[in-house]
Every structure is written in structure tokens, then in C-alpha cells.
Design goal:
8 helices; alpha+beta; 297 residues
Amino acid sequence: MAVQYRASKYLEGIGDTGIGTDNHFGEVNLQEVQKVCNTMVSDICRVYGCDDPEKLLPEALIKTNVVKAQMAEWLFTAIDLLNHCCLPLMSSARTTIEQLQEEKINDQRTIIELQEKLISKKDENLGLVSQTVEKELKSYSSALQQSCSTALSPTNIATAVKKIVKEEDRTKEVVVFGVDEEAGECVTTKISGILQQLDEKPRITGCRRIGQTVTDGSAKRPIIFSVKSTDVVYQILRKAKRLKDIEGFKTVYISPNRTLDERISRQKLVNELKERRLGDPSGRYFIRRGEIVKADN
């Protein structure tokens, strides 16, 4: 007689309500199925005296002392799990995968269409930009040709070169104030004598008085002289302040050959320096790098 048996011992936690069908198989159901499988395999291993489920081979399962009812219970449980869990879940998974593949294909088709539209739009914008750039370049080229033809005229080039040469010469020149002016004087000799007080003996390449001559001889026109390099100018200017402590040269003042704008700026600084010294007699103020600085006490 065939065994009629409902494996309630293992499947009672799962129930009969279509496990594995839509809207019923979730994380909780998975945990229930795993619990059933673990319990049943553990019981089989215990009955057969096996410590490893991997060793439950067909030849090991042929054991005469295991009753048919027990074997039927295990077989029924396995079939129930297959029919109500594994097979429905595999079928559902296959359907889901097919849907996802179809969605992926549709998404890829949409992406391709969007890319084609984007490329078409870029080509259209590129054409507009190209036309605009070409137009602007033509306008700029026309204006540049007109500007260059004026800027590169021989007269303008000669003027620019003269200006550069003049600025270059200026950096190699020094101006000396407060030197007595006499008829028939040799200004080069006077400048050499002043520079000797500073332990400087440079080669003077040019030396002359500047400014208008005063007939009564009361004015002392500045003397401007040139040396071979800006380094020599810097060396002379660095030592120039020593003259105020040397008898006979205390009224002599040496400065670089400044432009008109530089002289105006310098005069403003000197005036401001005088005002600060009057307002703060105890402070030590001086000009450094175009700024008025107060020395630390």
C-alpha cells in the first residue's frame, strides 16, 4: 500500500499558500526554506551517521534499518520544495531576466537615438560657430592690417627705437647736484674728485652741465655723467650718502637720472618725508623703494 504522508514536521512553517509564486516569495520565505533544508539534511545525516552532507551518496543511502515512512517524509519534503519553491522561483527569475534584457535593449536603442541627435546638434552648432569665427577673423584681420601698416611705418619704428635707446642710456647716467660752477671748469675732473671720496674710479663716458646758464653765476647747475653699466650706477648710488659726512661735500647730492614723471613722484615723497619728520621729530624716517619707511627704535 502506498504511503500517504504530509510532511508537516518540515513544511509547517512554510504553509500551503503558493510559496514561490508572485508576491509571496521574499527574504522571509527564503529564510524559511533554508531552515527547512538545513533541518532535514541534519536529520538525514544523523540517521545515517554521516557528518558531511557531501558524503550522502546513493550507495550510502541504502540502509535497511530506515523505515519507509521516514524515507517518504524526506522525499515528500524535497519534492514539495522543488515544486513550490525552486521551480517557481527559477521560472520567475527567467521571466525577470528576459524583461530586463528587453528593457536593456530598449534603453540602448534610446541612447543611440539620443547620441545621434546630440551629434547632429553639435554639427549644427559647430557650423554656426565656424561661420561666426570666420566672420570675426576677417574683421580682425582687416583691422590688424590697418593697425600694422600704421604701427610699422618707418617713422614710428625709428621713434620707438630712439625711445628704447634713450631709456637704456638713462639707466647708465648719474646726476650730481650742488657742485660749484666756474668759468672754464672741467666737469669731468670735478666728478672724478667726488667719486674718489666714495672710493669709486669708474670710466666716465660722458659728462656735462644741464639746464640754463645763469649770468651772475649764483646758480649751480646739475652735472650729468655716464658710466659703462647700470651696476656701476648702483654702486655709486649705494655709497652716495657718505658725502654728507665729508667736509667740503656736505651739500653735494647724487641721484639717478630720473624721468619727469619719476622726478615729480620723488618730489612728492620728499615733501611727505619732511612733513613726517616735522610731525614726529623723534622718529627716523627715510625713503626706501619708493615708499616712506620708519626705522625701528
